[in-house]
User: Fold this.
Amino acid sequence: MLMQMRMSQDQALSFQPTNLDHEELKHLYSAMLKPRLIEEKMLILLRQGKISKWFSGIGQEAIAVGVTSAMQEDEYILPMHRNLGVFTGRNIPLYRLFSQWQGKAAGFTKGRDRSFHFGTQEFKIVGMISHLGPQLGVANGIALAHKLKNEKKITAVFTGEGGTSEGDFHEALNVASVWQLPVLFCIENNGYGLSTPVSEQFNCEHLADRAKGYGMEGHIIDGNNIVEVFEKVSSLARDMRQNPRPVLLEFKTFRMRGHEEASGTKYVPNELMEQWAKKDPIDNFRRYLLSEGIITSEEDENLRQEIKAEIDTHLQKASDEPPIEADETTELNDIFEYFDYKDITSDSKSENIRFIDAVSQGLRQSMERHDNLVIMGQDIAEYGGVFKITEGFVEEFGRERVRNTPICESGIAEAAMGLSIKGMKAVVEMQFSDFAASGFNPIVNYLAKVHYRWNQNADVVIRMPCGGGVGAGPFHSQTNEAWFTKTPGLKVIYPAFPYDAKGLLNTAINDPNPVLFFEHKALYRSVRQQVPSSYYTLPLGQAVLLREGKDVTIISYGAGVHWVLDVLEEYTKIDADLLDLRTLQPLDKEAIYKSVRRTGKVIILQEDSLFGGIASDIAALISENCFEFLDAPVKRVGSLETPVPFNSELEKQYLPKERFEAALKDLLAY
Ligand SMILES: Cc1ncc(C[n+]2csc(CCOP(=O)(O)OP(=O)(O)O)c2C)c(N)n1
Assistant:
């Protein structure tokens, strides 16, 4: 655990600046002192119950400060929970930080997220989500945008050594290396992840050695030595700007306080604490500056008083700020970025095309329209994707914008988020919607929540080839829209026809918010329609009434719509309203109520197994809003409560088509 380092009698660290003048050394000292003094104050406020939680970075300041000082002002930094020095290093007015920690409006999240969980475009900081690892992949997206725009900028992202055990770490480093992205991956190895010592976290001597396995450069840096941190990172950064590539840095340091203040450090041997206390980055550097005559004790004292006065003034300002008043409308309005939908109609000739051609056309025409749009997915480049939707795209748009990815759904969802932070658009193709499970965390926790948290949009469409009836078994047949419809912050589209697929995909791409776009595989080559050849859009949140009748309302979407049409074709006497929802989030509630109020009977068909699906919510909405109009109980039909089976007889039994027919007859006879 202890590092090899030269020790003089009075200093546990030795400083040998090669290229820094006195002013620069003083700046580094003062930049470390500020977060230290803020923390000392925060610990008092914590004890007084004025802030709720605190993750201390005491003893680790040299890393955040050294890295931040080595970055250019307009380069993004993605810090973690112990990196106060990044925030102070970017000169965020302190009262804004204090307001953030007190959940007040002058913070960065309108009281919606705590401590360091925020980002700010103004200061080019992208804060973490609690899940730690996703930060790393988001940095890749930002770096990719820089690289595509040839901006010669680097991106720095932090993780603790504990966070390196997450899959996101592996995915991010691998992607960064394969794509040669200029990302500085900074591991702060502070000995413990909560109570877990490094010996139980990983089984290699140095985490920096992992760089080799990813085909990238790795360095070990004494994280307590500000001069070493600053000089090494500065020189690497200069080089990376010219020769874009990822670099892995392992900063050796130690966590001097508990994981968070309340949890203490009982499990840390005293001896270790004592050894590392001698290496305090600030005390040692101060002694060095004093012994070299770079500062005097008086200057040091004055600096401390100055910083303390600044802290007190800003704390007062934050304390004087009134508490946030809860307002439901404000909360709901901030889930999504405002989208100014433009209805674009096509007066071009139409052609009879398949569902799959419509998706492909929409995608191609959107690529032509938005030169900041990048498509990413497995095997989508020359191979054209497993369903051949992007066939020919590389020739037309180039490999920079049509990107094959390694097999890493989380890493790519995160990269898409990073592109959005740099003002680009991304379409991510899941090879099968089932595999979104491997990218679930960034979708539901990062993309979905980021606008609500700190007003950053996630301009990402995730294409989801889904659905059963194709004999593909439990992992290539699911229709998993319910995983997403229940998550505020995501839009969900599920078309049943080529015309809708093209128009809605175009709108999804125009929409600056995260959209899950479901494409039923069984419809790809089986459903045809006249579709305008040129570009057009269709609005989200509008269902379409496919049949009009008076006896019953049938509600469905995706392949379900076609099963209903088959049944209605067979039983021509059934006089039904057939509502194709087209989008599930937003849901066209008014169209549902209007029809149900007219017919008095309703059946909802979904392909997914029934429990917890959208049919249940629609049924609840109908009983809450149309009860007096109902002549029969609301009926829901879905698949069996089992995984999707492979064998065709089993799958037929699993899927709800036959049960739907029977349930519809029962309902009509009620
Ligand atoms: C996915 C996930 N699992 C567990 C946690 C709980 N947790 C928060 S921080 C932390 C320790 C992180 O250790 P490390 O990455 O070494 O950073 P450090 O706190 O030491 O700076 C844990 C276990 C979490 N936030 N997210």
User: Anything to note?
Assistant: Residues 77 and 156 are 5 Å apart (CA to CA). Confidence is low (pLDDT under 50) at residues 1-10. The longest strand covers residues 602-609. The chain is about 40% helix and 15% strand.
